[in-house]
Each structure stands twice: as C-alpha cells, then as structure tokens.
Write a structure and sequence with these properties.
Layout lengths: L2 H7 L7 H10 L2 H4 L3 H44 L7 H8 L1 H6 L1 H4 L3 H17 L8 H15 L2 H10 L7 H17 L1 H9 L9 H23 L16 H15 L10 H5 L5 H31 L4 H7 L1 H21 L3 H20 L3 H28 L4 H25 L9 H33 L16
Helix pairs in contact: 1-2, 4-10, 4-11, 4-12, 4-13, 4-16, 5-9, 5-21, 8-9, 8-10, 8-13, 10-21, 11-18, 11-20, 12-13, 12-17, 16-17, 16-20, 16-21, 16-22, 18-20, 19-20, 19-22
C-alpha cells in the first residue's frame, strides 16, 4: 500500500473520510507502474495459490458431510439400527446447532482455519465415525465436528474478499465452491471404491468409507497450513509469494474499488455488532438459509432417493451422486463469469430458484425414471449455484473490516439454519418420497425469490437517491449497490 494510505490509516479515528479519500488519491505510483498485463499476471498468481487450496478445504468439509449418507446405505443404518424412529435424522441435525452457535466467535484468518481443520481431521481418525459401535457415539462426534468446523467457511469467504475487487469476486467464489462441490461429489465414487475394502481388518464397508476419507482429510488439512495464503495486509515482504510492490498493487486496487483495506483495527464489540442493525445483512442471511435448506437436504438424502425411490442399486446410487454436482459446478462457474461481466447478481438468484422448483416437481411428480433423474440435476445445480451468488451479492454491497467479518459469520451461520430446516423436513420416516421436505424446499425457493425482488427494488431506489446527490452509501461518495 502506498505510504500516504498507511499514514492516513495510522491517524486518530476523527480524521474525516474526505481527508482519507484525498490522501488515497494523491499517491498511487505503484499501480501506475504496472501495465494491465502485469496486473493480470499478479491476479492469476493469487488465483493459483488461493482458489485451489480454499476449494480443497471446502471439498473435504462437504465430503465429511456427504459421506454420512453414503455410509448409511452401505450398512451403517443396519448395523447401528439407525432406522428406528428419527435416529438418522437426529445424527444429521445435531451437527448444525453447535455449528451455528460457534460461527461468529470462530471467524478468523488462514492459520486459525487450517489449525482447526487439522484438529477436526485428527478427531475424525482418532475417535472417528468409522470406529463407532453405538449410534449415540455418532451424535457426540457430530457435535464436536460442528464446533471445530465453524471457523472454516466464513474465514475463507472473508479471506477471498480481501484479495479481489467487487466485480472479480463472483467468478472466484464460484470457482472455489466448484472445486469444493465437485471434490465432495467424488465422495460417491470414493465410497464405492472404499466399500470394496469390506472385511479388511475385520471392518465393515461403511467403516472404511469414514476411515479412508478421514485420512484424505488429514492430508489436505495439513497441506493448507503451508499453502493457504493469509491476508494481503499481513504479507509485508511477500513471504516468497508476492513482492511488497505486488502486494501494494493488490491493496491499491481494492482501496480504489471500495476503500476497504484496513483490517488491523483493535477489536471492539461495538464495532463488531454494529452491522446487526442493518436489515440487509439479515436479508442476505435469509437468502443463504433458503438456498442451503435444499442444498443440505440433497447432500444428505440424495443417495437414499436414488436407491429407494428411483430404484438404483447401492453402488450405482453412490456413483450417480457425482454427475449432478459436476453439472452444478459448471452452472455456477458460467453464472459467475456472466454476472461479473454484467455486474449483476439478482437475475442469477431468481433463475436458480425457478430451476430448483422445476427440478423438485420433476423429481416428485413424474414417473419416467430418466425425467426424474434430470430433475435431480436441476435441483442439485440450482440450489448450489445460489450459494456463491448470495456470497458475491453480499460481498459487493458491504464495506469495512468488521462489517465483512460479522456478515461472513452471519451468512454462514444462517446457512447452518438451512441445514437444520433441511434435516427436520427431510425425515427418515418420510422415505422414499420425502414429500414434506419437497414442499418445504419449494416454499424456500419461492421465499428466496420474494426476498431477492424486494432487495433489488430497495437497492434500485437507494441508487437513484445516490445518483441524484441525496444520499451516500457506507460513507463512500458515489458508491452504488449492485443489483
């Protein structure tokens, strides 16, 4: 960052915004010395280091959730008697309460994220699911899993927002979530492969699913400690990754885009909680909840739907869980590129919700197997594509360190509420059609469209006031909401 920016940032809190803005504009020699081609090379270098590692962390995070459903149809349900009452639904549900409660205090940086991830990996192996001999042990492990995993997703969302400008972020969120989603989708193929180890060491097939995927989780968690980059503001000398001059250009681009590069403020509860008074923050959270209600339900119950409702064998059901997620990843990446190009967010949300509803209808009320499987593709891709779309919309319309920290945690916490809802409405006793869950998912997507249209109209009216010179958003003259 340029010296004038550093100087202003170190001043007392009563320095006016106008003085800060003037100082920022006075000196940008680093940016001017870089050609557009050089800037693109820097951003691509950041992409190669940040996005794959973030995606792999998300992949093993989602994989650890999806393997529960794969193990369930591979013999876990029968051996641990999970078909009795609501035992399986309880095991699915119990993860989310500690996950939601731990989100806000767990918001942290890359080292903290990686350390928690590694601790969770070790837990998975040492006291892991693969060695449980009573269903209540799974309940206890899922509670611990929720606590230890809480820091990961909000930490990654916030970390990525520090490196990119507003209209670069959707394609990046889509790319890292694509890696995570497709990586986790391979869980079906991995589960099928690990099932072939049945009897080895006297362990059942479902136990090997947990054990082997736990080993994979440990490896990736350990790699993230060394390869996941931190805040650009903390890389003073580049640490062998970027030079100080290259880091300055990254910071200056973000500062010019939204004047939002300060992260070293001393923690104060008043600063942290202040964004809670903004209703738009909770609106984004609702959008995320409505999206994850369907997404989590699909993740936990898709193998059972394919097996018990569509009639595929256990092995084929596990293999068929992968293609819908690959399709979802392709859709979200296309949308990310288009939405960044058009600088728009709400149209993608509305389209994805309508696609999800269509898929739910095809899955539940048609009788042709191929059409119903096509419905699975539409549901899986629509609800999952809305996750990076919501993250991007929120990231575009907020600024400030504590605002981003609080909003990232709230967004993911309310996504956890979607997991709770999905677990409650998709109940084991409703198999194989899961009609109460289907109805709830349809309602969630209708509500998503209502909130999206309402927010878009509100932002449009506020932008009109800004253009007329009657309003300033987030203390930044000329700042406009992304619609």
């Amino acid at each position: 960052m340029s010296s004038s920016v550093k100087h202003v940032n170190s001043h007392r809190d009563d320095v006016s915004f106008a003085e800060k803005a003037e100082a920022i504009e006075q000196e940008r020699p680093d940016e001017e010395q870089f050609s557009e081609n050089e800037i693109r090379k820097i951003i691509r270098k950041v992409d190669r280091r940040l996005i794959p590692m973030s995606g792999l962390l998300v992949a093993i995070c989602l994989l650890d959730r999806a393997n529960l459903s794969n193990a369930n149809i591979a013999g876990m349900s029968k051996e641990l008697h999970l078909g009795i009452g609501t035992r399986y639904s309880l095991i699915v549900l119990i993860f989310f309460a500690p996950y939601v409660l731990a989100e806000i205090p767990a918001a942290a940086g890359s080292w903290y994220v990686s350390t928690l991830k590694l601790c969770r990996c070790l837990l998975t192996l040492r006291k892991g699911f693969g060695f449980a001999h009573h269903w209540t042990v799974l309940v206890a492990l899922r509670i611990l899993l929720g606590i230890l995993e809480a820091a990961l997703f909000p930490g990654l969302i916030y970390l990525m927002s520090l490196w990119y400008t507003r209209y670069e972020i959707h394609k990046r969120y889509s790319a890292f979530y694509f890696i995570g989603l497709v990586g986790s989708a391979l869980g079906g193929i991995l589960a099928f492969a690990f099932m072939q180890m049945a009897g080895l060491g006297g362990l059942a097939a479902w136990r090997w699913i947990f054990i082997m995927e736990g080993i994979l989780t440990v490896v990736i968690g350990a790699l993230s400690i060394f390869f996941l980059i931190g805040y650009p503001q903390d890389l003073k000398d580049g640490s062998g990754f970027l030079t100080e001059r290259q880091i300055s250009i990254v910071l200056d681009r973000v500062e010019k885009d939204r004047q939002d590069t300060e992260v070293d403020q001393k923690f104060q509860w008043s600063n942290f909680i202040k964004p809670a008074l903004d209703l738009t923050v909770w609106s984004y959270g609702l959008l995320y909840t409505f999206s994850t209600t369907t997404a989590y339900a699909v993740a936990y119950f898709l193998p059972e739907i394919l097996n018990r409702e569509l009639g595929y064998s256990v092995g084929v059901s596990q293999l068929l869980t992968t293609p819908p997620y690959v399709f979802a990843g392709i859709l979200m990446c296309i949308e990310g590129w288009v939405c960044d190009k058009l600088q728009a967010r709400s149209p993608a949300l509305l389209y994805n919700a309508m696609q999800t509803i269509l898929g739910l209808c095809l899955l539940s009320w048609t009788h042709i197997s191929g059409v119903r499987l096509f419905g699975v593709f539409l549901v899986t891709s629509g609800c999952n594509a809305n996750i990076p779309a919501v993250m991007s919309w929120q990231a575009n319309n907020i600024r400030g360190h504590w605002v981003r920290t609080f909003c990232s945690a709230v967004l993911v916490a309310m996504g956890g509420l979607g997991g709770i809802i999905g677990s409650l409405v998709f109940r084991s006793q409703d198999a194989p059609k899961y009609l109460p869950g289907i109805y709830a998912a349809i309602v969630s997507n209708v509500l998503l469209m209502v909130v999206t249209v309402s927010l878009t109209l509100y932002f449009w009216l506020v932008n009109r006031q800004v253009k007329a010179g009657n309003r300033i958003i987030a203390d930044v003259p000329g700042f406009l909401y992304t619609l």
